[in-house]
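Before drawing any conclusions, I needed to go through one protein's amino acid sequence and its backbone structure tokens, quoted below without any editing.
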Amino acid sequence: MRLKDRVAIVTGGGSGIGAASAVAMAREGARVLVADLNEAGAKTVVEQIERAGGQAAAARADVTRAADNQAIVEQATARWGRLDVFFANAGVPQWKTELEDVEEKVFDQIFAVNVKGVWLGARYALPVMKRARRGVFLVTASTSAIRPRPGGQTYAASKGAVITLTKALALEMAPHGVRVVAIAPVATHTPMLPTFMNKREVDEEGLRQYVATVPLGRLNQPEDLAATAVFLASDDAAMITGSCVEVDGGRCI
């Protein structure tokens, strides 16, 4: 078990990539705090982990609030005595919108969740890891930061920001034995997928168009990202830090 006896926090853990990652980390032996604005979703994931014999707890958290980030770090360390992995996964998408039609409040929300939320998670998790001289801070970025699609400029900018933040934090944390790594998924079968397609729900035509942009011929499943997160959180990835790992079926080639 690659994460045996370790403690992980996963934000946005109530659905999609976060839920799959929480389950996968628990399967590999981690004790997982599943944090989400949707507390019911987080509790459902915890129940799934516990039914499989794992250890987990749920927490309601708004990653844009400093107090909530501080609280989940304190909850995990108080409950299990340590913190080894923080997966800053919570994020919000952008409807396909031309720049001149993007409202300022939309920009503010996307950057508050996708950038400030990561920064706040790091602000409270990394000092704990520094003191322990161990730990891994993971960030969900996006291939949109590398190969943007039209109409997604604000989302792409937010994900570009967290890739740069990842590199900066990796340099800062390396002397303390802490790694920081970003993961860049291509479009993934999660509740966000219809928004990226600019549709209320995924339809055959929208799916066909997206799949056609991926050389391997399919979109991600949440489990593709969960497997990557487990690998990067484990000692198998001991020499990986500051990187942005593209899980994209070749789209960014």
Remarks:
- The radius of gyration is 17 Å.
